[in-house]
Amino acid sequence: MERKHQYVLITGATSGIGYELAKQFARNGYDLVIVARDHEELSKKANEFKEYGINVVSISKNLFLQEEAYSLYSELKMNGISPEILVNDAGQGVYGKFQDTDIHRELDIINLNIISVIILTKLFIKDRLSKGSGKILNLASVASKFPGPWHSVYHATKAFVLSWSEAIREELKDSGISVTALLPGPTNTDFFNKADMNKSKLLEDKDTLASPEEVAIDGYHALMNGNDKVISGLKNKFSVVMSNLSTDTMVAHRMSEMQKPMEK
Fold first, then answer.
1. Would you list the domain boundaries of the chain?
2. 7-259: CATH number
């Protein structure tokens, strides 16, 4: 393995797809800045990644709060770190009909899935423009392609992430900074527990869930190739093609049937 001597900043790096992405970068010689809320998990994962012979900086931040996103970048500047790659992985959802769900939880999710992503990306771009290089990987989702009854706010935040990623990619095309969106489908992570979604019909057969490692490999290669986006998994590619041939009403109904509670 050849050391790159370049830092990758990864949010949500202690579990799921973020953790698997961190492993991909570590295996390929990149130094890491890993970000999550849990101090203990950060320390544990930092020690694991250091076994690859790289530098690892762990920073505990609560990215539900805007000021924590700003302070994250301030800490990097104070330590003289200018990440070459930004991976916006941290994200959550909440399950249930919009009329029943907790508005405060949903506003937190919007802050995490959209606002903190915008802040970190803005600061990253401002830092990297003068250097003429950089790569951004934004975790969208195949949910970005479908209206999502029973999971409406999450689907909407990912639709924002995808549209916005494609827009700033065009703006940055002559800057040396690339933007890639990763669109996984349902993946075997702790996401569904955090979203209180374990009773959804989507999880009736957990054997159909994608492996976070396979998703991370797809995302890593797409980023390194400078692709605009990648839909991870053949089944998810097919679902997106089918949705493009259907009306939004039909797609929304199909998603409602897939995501409604099992007992219904």
1. 7-259
2. 3.40.50.720
pTM greater than 0.90: yes
Enter the DSSP assignment of 114: I
Residues 6+ apart with CB under 8 A from 75: 59
Q: Which residues, at least 6 apart from 124, have a Cβ–Cβ distance to it below 8 Å? A: 9, 73, 83, 86, 134, 136
By C-alpha distance, which of 73, 49, 158, 52 is closest to 112?
A: 158
Q: Give the pLDDT confidence of 153-212 residue by residue, as tens digits.
A: 999 999 999 999 999 999 999 999 999 999 999 999 999 989 999 899 888 888 789 999
Continuous H helices in the chain: 16-27, 39-50, 66-78, 103-110, 116-128, 152-171, 191-194, 212-224, 234-244, 248-259
